[in-house]
Specification:
The protein is an all-alpha fold. About 60% of the residues lie in helices and about 0% in strands. It is globular, with a radius of gyration of 23 Å.
């Protein structure tokens, strides 16, 4: 079974996936602050009650991330507010997210804007980034794309990798900034300094499709690999495709299937379809028609737009199965989707600081539900050719 080559489709297609790329990075960064024993906690509590900002933030983080037991968002909100009232930008951005999402407080987008504005006013790059997102979306404030990009640029120049990614994409698309693929590529490279998985993924896509730089499939595969190893499902899928096709890396369909499975574990719908193709093709041994049909049904029921040729091929697969096998495949699919439900999806949709983030860890990743995809940025980027391997023998 052969695979089709990737096709450069351009960045002006109908699908807007910048928000999805960013969504993976909007999960809370993991604080390096450790938990505390009862004696230490009592001391910190006393300090916090006496107005110590560091102690207040410690308590807020501990309650938010469940370091003292089960997470307690009401207490987290209380202590973030105490620190935020004293001008702590870290606490202000956290409190803004808490109001945006209604975590331990009543949802209030206007109040979220107020806290992001306070953080941004102190030139905090995360506050600037989050405030930019509110202006882009028109949440709690009148939509203002020009001001949003201005804020995003300030944040990017201050070194925030996620904002650098946004600016790079905005230059490439040419909406809000003059179109300049070379300048966009330079910003994309800057955005990878802290190993942000979404930035590594986009940089790989730029290398693969010659956006602002000469095409370099080996570098594309390398950047996809870096992102994939940090848990980026889109990179895992694309790297799997490159192994399947032998583009930039030696052709290795067994290895391809490993990456497709990793993407599928994170609810990447294109990986579901690629798992179907690999099962049909026998990437790791003999063909498995039941598994192939189960993965196809999973992709279909996950609302992945599927081209007619795949629908036709898997209809033929279903016709070759017995009624019991079809029933088994559907049961497998239902079981998979139930197990990989949206329960673990990211609820936080804005960036939140952490006191320390390992430069080798990137941002903490959680599973993201693709139903959250929406144009948070004025960038229309088609899905980086996720077309699965050709079904022709």
């Amino acid at each position: 079974m052969r695979a089709v080559n990737s096709k450069k489709t351009g960045w002006g297609g109908a699908k807007k996936v910048c928000s999805y790329l960013l969504l993976l990075a909007f999960a809370s960064a993991v604080s390096a602050t450790e938990g505390a024993d009862e004696k230490d906690l009592a001391k910190r509590l006393a300090k916090a009650e006496n107005g110590d900002r560091n102690a207040q933030v410690f308590l807020a983080d501990g309650y938010e991330f469940g370091r003292f037991g089960a997470p307690d968002r009401v207490q987290a909100a209380r202590w973030y507010r105490r620190a935020a009232d004293q001008g702590d930008a870290y606490a202000q951005t956290h409190l803004g997210v808490i109001y945006l999402e209604g975590l331990g407080v009543a949802e209030d987008k206007a109040e979220a804007v107020r806290w992001f504005q306070r953080a941004a006013a102190s030139s905090d790059p995360v506050g600037q980034h989050d405030l930019a997102m509110m202006y882009l979306k028109g949440w709690g404030v009148a939509e203002d794309r020009e001001h949003a990009i201005e804020l995003m640029m300030r944040s990017a120049k201050a070194g925030l990798d996620l904002s650098q990614l946004c600016i790079g994409l905005t230059y490439i698309e040419g909406e809000g900034l003059r179109r300049d693929e070379q300048e966009g590529f330079r910003w994309l490279k800057r955005a990878t300094h802290n190993h942000l998985p979404a930035a590594l993924f986009v940089l790989g896509y730029a290398y693969e499709n010659a956006l602002g730089t000469p095409q370099d499939l080996a570098k594309a595969a390398s950047e996809y690999r870096r992102a994939a190893e940090l848990g980026d499902a889109m990179a895992q899928n694309n790297l799997g495709r490159m192994y399947f096709d032998g583009r930039g890396v030696p052709r290795d369909r067994s290895h391809a299937m490993e990456y497709f499975r990793a993407g599928a574990e994170q609810q990447n719908r294109e990986s579901y379809l690629n798992m179907a193709v690999c099962s049909l093709d026998g990437c790791q041994g003999s063909r498995d028609l039941v598994a192939a049909y189960a993965w196809y049904v999973t992709a279909r029921d996950a609302q992945l737009p599927i081209e007619a040729e795949f629908t036709e091929k898997f209809s033929q697969v279903a016709a070759a199965l017995s009624a019991a096998q079809v029933s088994d495949a559907r049961a497998r699919s239902q079981s998979w989707l139930a197990k990989h439900s949206s329960d673990s999806a990211i609820s936080v949709v804005m960036l939140k600081h952490a006191p320390k983030v390992s430069p080798n860890a990137g941002y903490a990743m959680q599973n993201a539900k693709e139903a959250f995809v929406e144009p948070w940025l004025p960038i229309s980027i088609p899905l980086p050719n996720y077309r699965s391997p050709d079904l022709q023998h």
